[in-house]
Amino acid sequence: MPTEPVPTAGAPLPVPYVERLLPGPLGWSFVLGFALFVLVALVPVDVVVAAVVAVVTLVVGVAAVAVTSAVVTVDGGVLRAGRARIPVGLLGTGRALDREEARAALGPGSDARLYACYRSWLPGAVLVTVTDPEDPTPAWLVSSRSPARLLAALEAARGSAQAAHSEQIG
Predict the structure, then answer these.
(1) What is the C-alpha separation between 20 and 68, in angstroms, rounded?
(2) Could you tell me the pTM of the whole model?
(3) DSSP at 137
């Protein structure tokens, strides 16, 4: 994997990190299954109408899933996970978690103030502490298909951060 130059303080990353947290095979099978259900339900009415409506249902279902899936980005010195964002300068150390470690981080005994953008179908996550003493959120848990790349993007962007509080939009 080629290395990218580390930006100077105040400069945005040359290539931002972007990951859409799309569903796994089970989620996509529900979209396909619903389209097939529509096809079977409408075949008695008319085969052509059933096929057209099923294809439209499939396209709308895929678009709806894609549009409503959370997006994780590191760009311009800001980590965005879903609709929440925080400047990377307010983040401390992070570590990659596998599926079991991520579930344990959300399980009994976890801090209820933790911000979680977690998708159980993804293989890993990143847990990163919040260093801002005025922010009540102690850490962020963010799902990722490639936690190592997300951590690397956070480290590369750390120098360009401006101090501000995280903003969680519910």
Answers:
(1) 10
(2) 0.76
(3) -
